[in-house]
Write a structure and sequence with these properties.
CATH architecture: 3-Layer(aba) Sandwich
Distance between the termini: 58 Å
Number of domains: 1
Largest sheet: 3 strands, parallel
Length: about 120
């Protein structure tokens, strides 16, 4: 088990920061390294729970909370979520990245879109 302050936790911190880079190649590389650390037992995510969050916004949603699609998938995996979904405002830009990240991490994922309409 990797404890806070341990070498794996120290190695993971900069990778987690890179998950929010605006360059998708940097995000993909960081996520692949984190997934390998999980696979190799260097990082132990929380056990899966019944918690789901199917209404998350990525930074494609007017930079809502500053999380990239990969970062949200990683957060869900680390917290032991059963499933996560993204619903960005008016765009589907993060869908492929999010679903690919969920697949890589073994997290159930879905995606939608949130929009508003004005009817005069």
């Amino acid at each position: 088990m990797a404890w806070p302050g341990s070498q794996p936790a120290i190695q993971a911190a900069p990778l987690e920061t890179r998950l929010n880079a605006f360059d998708p190649a940097i995000r993909a590389e960081a996520l692949a390294e984190l997934a390998a650390m999980v696979r190799d037992g260097l990082i132990e995510p929380a056990p899966e729970t019944d918690v789901v969050n199917m209404h998350c916004h990525t930074f494609f949603s007017f930079n809502a909370y500053g999380h990239s699609p990969s970062s949200l998938a990683w957060l869900g995996k680390q917290q032991g979520f059963r499933a996560m979904g993204i619903v960005d405002f008016d765009v589907l830009d993060g869908v492929d990245e999010f679903l690919d990240a969920c697949d890589l991490l073994g997290l159930r994922g879905c995606a939608g879109i949130e929009t508003r309409v004005f009817i005069p």
